[in-house]
Give the backbone structure.
Amino acid sequence: MRKLLLAFSIGLFFAACSPNNVQVNEEIGKYFDSAGVKGTFALFDNGTGDFTIYNLNRYKDSAYSPASTFKVVHSLIALETGVVSDEKMAIQLDSAVTMETAFKNSIVPYYQEVARRIGKDTMQFWLDSLKYGNHTIGKSIDSFWLNNTIKLTPDEQLGIMKRLFFNQLPFQKRTHEIVKRMMLRESNANYQLSYKTGLTFNEKGEQLGWVVGWIEENKHPYFFVLNMEAPTNIPLVDARISLLKKILSNQGFFEGKR
């Protein structure tokens, strides 16, 4: 473990927080090793401006398909444009599915239909406005977030989470609040945990997984991003949240003492 002081801009989030206090914590790697995966983890303490990061190079320099974490921005765009009225709006698939259900259960066909209704030009406008990753849609309006066309760094993901939490993205307050409600997954007297998961395959055919979001204790937000990849024999669907909670517990969360 070592302490670094970064006085330069790194990506979407670091650029907004300068100078940056970054603690590189390689001890977190043991949780990745025990799960049989490789990746990066970052935690930002909004109160102090401090980062705790495992695998700094992967965090700031490598870009990946967002997979279903794109549903965060996708939902913001859909709500802002009126393509989706609110989180209770249903689209008929095999059965009627609401955006809230599709968001929490990562129901891809719902968001594919939403993407087609938004249209390529409008989607491109918002991706450019947000400076979302490489902004690239490619030929498929209903799959670009899954097939390694659009990519962004873990640092950019963390920046989006912070700006969403504080209603700082270029959307109405109502739009922010609806998406934040959908992201809330656990709430009790000690903490509130909000996140969105993502899972797809990279160009090498390996699984690529994400968990992005924040945890609040004593009304104090901490933003996190977990990015990982693993061979297909690793059950990454379950490993993502398990790994996140082990790391957060190691950092002193879940007891209401942070």
About this structure: The CA atoms of residues 79 and 119 lie 14 Å apart. The radius of gyration is 18 Å.
